[in-house]
Amino acid sequence: MTAQPILQVVDLKKHFPIRKGVLQRVAAKVHAVDGITFHVNAGETLGLVGESGCGKSTAGKTILKLIEPDSGTVRLMGERIDALSPREMWPYRRQLQVVFQDPYSSLSPRLTAGAIVAEPLENFGIAKGKEARERVAWLFEKVGLRAEQMAKYPYEFSGGQRQRLGIARALAVRPKLIVADEPVSALDVSVQAQVVNLLMDLQEEFGLSYLFVAHDLAVVEHISHRVAVMYLGKIVEIADKKSIFAAPKHPYTEALLSAAPLPDPTTKRKRIVLAGDVPSPVNPPSGCRFHTRCPYAIDRCKTEEPVLREAATGHQVACHLR
After folding, report:
1. Cβ contacts of 13 within 8 Å, gap of 6 or more
2. What are the distances in angstroms from CA 130 to CA 109, 127, 133, 147, 222?
3. In this predicted model, what pLDDT tens digit does every residue of 61-113 receive, in sequence order?
4. pLDDT at 135
5. How do the domains of the chain map onto residue ranges?
6. CATH of 7-95+176-317, one of 3.40.50.720, 3.40.50.300, 1.20.1250.20, 3.10.180.10
7. What does each C-alpha distance from 165 to 51, 115, 116 come to in angstroms?
8. pTM of the entire structure?
């Protein structure tokens, strides 16, 4: 019997209206997330990758209900949460936490580091007073900070230390799933490795699941168990990371991987240069959204949208040619 996924997302959509004129009528819509389906298993990291503007961060925020979805379903541990009101969503907030991209703006400058990490403990009634301070000190130790740093303010920490604070805050309520929205993109390369390794250690210790949103393929390959590739609001390929990086099946994934630098300068890889620019999400192409840049496109690709189907065991791809 297959275990129930921690997170199940089915046909999730989020469009942003563009209003014009005195009456602010809707003139068009930005198709940011346009019908994506995937799941995250217990103790697993699913990497969500794609070019800037493909909708991956919007997908994460919509799952968190920081942005309300237009349609589709989101289930957390089997319970549907996409249609819940803020009050109804409250019990699930403890199980669903987030680590934001920017460690500078995501922490209140008016609170001490200890107060920032203690806040969710008090909000959920987990601990107060001395008990909360002891738990915060323990969390500081878990993320590689010292207990005496609890009295400092965020501006007194480096970028990497601030992101560790953000991780401690997310970890405080012992969630089942953490949405990590490009958590290392604002950090120096040397610090990125430390934070990624910390996330992996915490996952092993606490049995966490991650939805890891990123555009850095090297980081995704290091931390993820499976990878989902997004293009213009759609998921075009999902597979385990070994299959994705060794034998990608979608032309966009092939091009994306060919652009990633290799750590060995003696290794040669054919560079796939895509023609044209990414189409506007306001007016996405008909059929396959990648057909305007795809070197293998046929007439069918221009009119018929491919569905995400299993091309090999555990390997799904949305392409007419695979």
Report:
1. 33, 34, 35, 69, 70, 71, 72
2. 23, 8, 5, 14, 38
3. 999 999 999 999 999 999 999 999 999 999 999 999 999 998 889 999 999 99
4. 96
5. 7-95+176-317, 109-174
6. 3.40.50.300
7. 28, 11, 8
8. 0.92
